[in-house]
Design brief:
Length: about 325
Amino acid sequence: MSTSLQLRSSESEFTGPPREWFFGEEWLQRDIAAVFDPRWLVAAHVDQLIAPGSAVSMTLGSRVCEVRRTAGGDYIATELGSGRRLHAEVWVGFVFVSFATERPASLADELDKSGLGGYDTTRFKLAAFKTHEVEANWKIVFENNNECYHCELNHPELVTQIDWKVTEAADFDQYMLDRAAGREIETSNKIGSYSTLNNEPVSQRLLARQPGIGPANGSWTVFWEPGSGLAFAPDHAWMQAPRPTGAGTTQVDQYWLVDVDAVEGVDYDLENLKFFWDTTLVQDKHLCESVQKGMRNPVYQAGPLNRRFQGGNAGFYSWYGAQVKATYPELF
Ligand SMILES: [Fe+2]
């Protein structure tokens, strides 16, 4: 009896990078040079820099960038220690910086082309900021963010608003090819309307939005490399921005935005506003740290990625591998 089912050997499946790429200073420096230095990184929100002369710092590996607001209202980014002036640009109230030598093409211009789901981002204000220190290599954190295969068992709150099959691959191989070729920005509307527990509003004052643009229910997300994303809901928006602070440590910054006229304690409760996404990220922090512990075992070997539900991970590693290969061709 013949069958059309083609069984593949696990040796022929895509696994992502080998174990040693996740450890040590040498690989961290390669990753930073190939992935982070050439790109724009979220360093701050302008509402953290209201007073002239105020400053915040952002760490990437062993380097620290200071973002300072001038008396004239500009934002100056400087690498501490070297004093080197870094590139800066502002998008949707976020100050992006780049450690690149040459100023990269504007990410803000590219993100604006996505249409922002019709939201009027000029009316956003920062309601909350929170950072998680994750004891795991940055690639583990990014990989986790690129799939939902783990969601059903680990994110009881998230799966009230998102089908864990959301990352089901339409064409695994083509997606990997597209990502390797440079696809770095993606939009979707696959999260529940409010991206909150039980889909209930967390702010009584809705965000301003142009009618007829974007999905009717207001669910809209935009993701861009390296690893950042902004999720809009009718009443609030949330951003996460992860980056390595060491070979085995990753800082994940979260920002919550509400309408500029929303009043804390009246229109929204701060803990309620943060609950849905922060709960999910605490769960992910524990997952990533467990993965890192497992990978410390010298007998660890990367297993095949699921061609149906881990296309996001495979796409990420395909893109990442292309960056490393372009920067360090001698390694291949
Ligand atoms: Fe997760």
